[in-house]
Design goal:
The chain is mainly α. The protein has 4 helices and no strands.
Length: about 110
């Protein structure tokens, strides 16, 4: 169950990172509220995951999901560059996440 909490925390990290773009410096009410709510859900979920998963592993996986997911979202929805080198680097992040999951004690 801890890994499920960690996955949900990572998804909500992507959500708040993407929604942060729409807050316009926290001057737009609803995108700002959505961003803060997504941040809160992400934090609560990672705190539940940390009950079982070692801190270093959980944090690396959480930020890796957020970084890779946000970068992919930017490529596919915001037209950001998605060249071979950039996609290869994202693949390395995903490989690192998988490696941490496979070698985790829990």
């Amino acid at each position: 169950m801890a890994w499920m909490y960690l996955l949900v925390a990572g998804v909500f990290e992507i959500i708040w990172a993407v929604s942060l773009k729409y807050t316009d410096g926290f001057t737009r009410l609803w995108p700002s509220i959505g961003t803060v709510v997504a941040m809160g859900i992400s934090m609560v979920c990672i705190s539940f995951a940390l009950r079982t998963i070692p801190m270093g592993t959980a944090y690396a996986v959480w930020t890796g999901i957020g970084a890779a997911g946000t970068a992919l979202f930017g490529i596919f929805y915001f037209g950001e560059p998605g060249g071979l080198i950039r996609l290869s680097c994202i693949a390395l992040i995903v490989a690192g996440i998988a490696g941490l999951k496979l070698t985790a004690a829990t």
